[in-house]
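Reviewer 2 asked us to include a model.

Predict the structure of this chain.
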Amino acid sequence: MKRYLHEIVNTDLATKMVVLTGPRQVGKTTLSRQLMEGYANGQYLNWDVRADRAILQRQSWNQRAQLLVMDEIHKMHGWKGWLKGVVDGRSVGQALLVTGSARMETFRQGGDSLAGRYFAFRLHPFSVREWAEQAGIDPGDALDHLLVRGGFPEPCIAQEPVQADRWRQQYFNDLIREDVLEFSRLHEINTMRLFVEVLRERVGSPLSLASIARDLAVAPATLKRYLEVLQALFIVFTVQPWHSNIARSLLQSPKIYFFDTGLVRGDQGVLLENAVAAMLLKHIHFLQDGMGRTAGLHYIRTKDGAEVDFALSDEGQLTQLIECKWGDNSPHRSLSRFAGLFPTAEAVQIVHDLRQEEFRNGIRITSAAHWLAGLSA
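Predicted model (structure tokens):
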């Protein structure tokens, strides 16, 4: 099963180091091993494997390996400086792929020591487009499957629903017990777990850390740090409100979503909104990582409560306004309002249960599944 980043990563490996990040168990190792099949001589080294760690520390890997894959090296002390030396001293013609999650994402904020030496990609779970292509099914069937199973490979591919449920429970426990400990202290784990449980029920709503802090009897600053940890671990992501003044935008409340829709607690509409948010983020990250675009994902909300679920931007200008509905094909009032305020942006109302596509009040009302299948990834 070839993932959507396979070809573009393979092309970039010919010119620079590639850094591949993403959630735990999203398929980074599988993609790496599939890429190795295209090289006559490749070597895979995982920092978590003791024998591999010794090779990495000695730098005694095969210098003739055409592709060298290093996994989880962000767990090494001083890994950024070490990796710079590896990149500069590698054998001529040797491709280098570095994979990991969590702290590896700090490449994007980690200074200029590796500037110009790498391309970075973020691997996401399956979307409607990718799953429909992989499974050879209609986008509608693909969306319904993803709403039940989520887009992570193992539960998505599982033969029985119970296998997917068992995977998700173990996945959630491992994330909290193991990965969070990379960032937090042991006594904080229970509070972190409670925080995640609260977030599972607040998907799609403006997030008030102060309110949750009161409920959990902790300081808002503590929850702010917890949220940063959950984002670094690719458990949740936030969607910021759109505003032409970026500084003002950051002062407003973000909305919270999960990379794994299966972790969300809510009705069908909430599950659909989370799934759409995750697929839009995948689309935006592909445009950023693979095409060098300055695309962004936002939502719009006014003080009087008028809101549009999502808004896409490019080069600082809104390009699309998107409202998600399970079965309502009547033009959404707020979407109509903002369509008038942003006439150059396409206004789209995507509906799960829709009999006929329409164009009303300046709004394209269309099938959610088929619209999602048209995204870039």
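The CA atoms of residues 10 and 193 lie 38 Å apart. The two ends are 15 Å apart (CA to CA). We have added this to the supplementary material.
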